[in-house]
Amino acid sequence: MAWPWETGAPERQAAPRLEGSAYDALARRAIANATVDGRGGASHTGVRRWRRFCAEQGLCPDRPLDPNASLAAKLHEEWLIIRFVACLVQDTGIKPRTTTNYLGAVQGWHARQHGIKLSGGLKLERLPAMIKGMRRIYGDSGRRVRRGVPPQLLRQTMDLMLDPANRDHVTIRAALSLGFQGLLRGAEFAVDGTQWRESLHLSRADVVTLTKERLVVMMRPCKNMNHLTGKTVPLVIGAGGKFVDAVADMRRLFEIDPVDSSAAKQTPLFRLLLGRPITVDMLRDWVKWLMQGIGLRSEHFGAHSLRIGGATALFAAGADPNIIRTMGRWSSDCYRLYVWACFIQTLEWTQLAGYTVVDDVAGEFEEVDCY
């Protein structure tokens, strides 16, 4: 028996083509719907730039290569990828650090489209060194400073700047409190760049329990498990936080802005006086305004500051990392939410997030882009 690379070895035969099947249409549709755009990631900016780059080079952007192809063929494809990354930096002004996100989108799209990444799946050994070198050549502005909102400061500024008799202010306060104690991403409780849709965004009907002791909201995470249809993840909040109490703030919202049960599904959970749902941009502006109102630099805060602040408060209170990960939905395995944090624990920890005093620490957070 001879190995394929040895003299006299028989040539590898191409795999036979599969005949058409009634299952093909569903399979292709499912692969395309693995990404939010429903096109297998083809609409991502990185993929569009890859297509443009290949067109300018007179090449096809679809480049499946046999993993058993020659090393020379793989390295040739690797150099094409290196040229693409250099083009992103040199011609489009994209920062070297950001090119990895663009290329990752291209690789994911190519793998879904053809069953294999570019360059036959070769580990791109030279690419990290190249990006490191480009950061030295072009400089690197570093990551944006993003500060979490400490619970005691959130309470201080809400009491100071939000009028409890103003319906819009009551709505904002309830949204901020829920975002903080629920460790919510902005797009999980506000509208992010699209029109409000009951299937995606929180509605009044999604509040399934609201008592003096607890709040339960059924939600659809905007990242992990967002491919599932329906709002299947329960967000459980305990009442009684010394500084932040989303249960009390939500009860006040339902008192000042009641909605008939027949219209609950069509009503955004957080809406302003004119009926407009709260957007992520609005939320970001409110957080900045509130922090500025107590003398802090507004540019260090945003909608994600609530999520950071809530997680930091839990950590300061002594929460186990697994509790924080699962409560913040940093795991793609949704069932772990109640494996690691049972119902009673969730009530206790969310209460602690609204009760604990923490030192405000300015830091750099990669989490915004990674989860």
SSE blueprint and pairings:
Layout: H1 24-32, H2 45-56, H3 71-90, H4 96-114, H5 126-138, E1 145-147, H6 151-161, H7 167-181, H8 186-189, E2 207-210, E3 214-219, E4 233-238, H9 246-256, H10 280-293, H11 304-316, H12 321-327, H13 336-340, H14 343-353, E5 362-364, H15 367-370
Antiparallel strand pairs: 1-5, 2-3, 3-4
Structural commentary:
Helix content is 45%, strand content 6%. The protein has 371 residues and is mainly alpha-helical. It folds into two domains: 24-138, no CATH class; 146-370, Orthogonal Bundle (hpI Integrase, Chain A). It has a three-stranded antiparallel sheet. Strands 1-5 form a two-stranded antiparallel sheet. A hairpin with a 3-residue loop joins strand 2 (207-210) and strand 3 (214-219). The radius of gyration is 25 Å and the shape is globular. The protein starts with 23 loop residues before the first helix and ends with a helix. Mean pLDDT is 84; it is low at 1-6, 8-12, 332-340 and 364-371.
Quote the CATH topology of the largest domain. Answer: hpI Integrase, Chain A
Count of distinct structural domains: 2
CATH H-level superfamily of the largest domain: Intergrase catalytic core
What portion of residues is helical?
Answer: 40-55%
What would the average pLDDT be, to the nearest integer?
84
Structural class of the secondary structure composition? mainly alpha
Shape: globular
Please tell me the CATH architecture of the largest domain by its name. Orthogonal Bundle
Number of strands: 5
Number of helices: 15
Beta strand %: 5-15%
**Rg, alpha carbons:** 25 Å
CATH class of the largest domain: Mainly Alpha
Characterize the biggest β-sheet: 3 strands, antiparallel
Strand order of the largest sheet: 2-3-4
Distance between the termini: 49 Å
Following the backbone from N to C, one meets helices and strands in this order, namely: HHHHHEHHHEEEHHHHHHEH
Poorly predicted ranges (pLDDT <50, ≥5 residues)?
1-6, 8-12, 332-340, 364-371
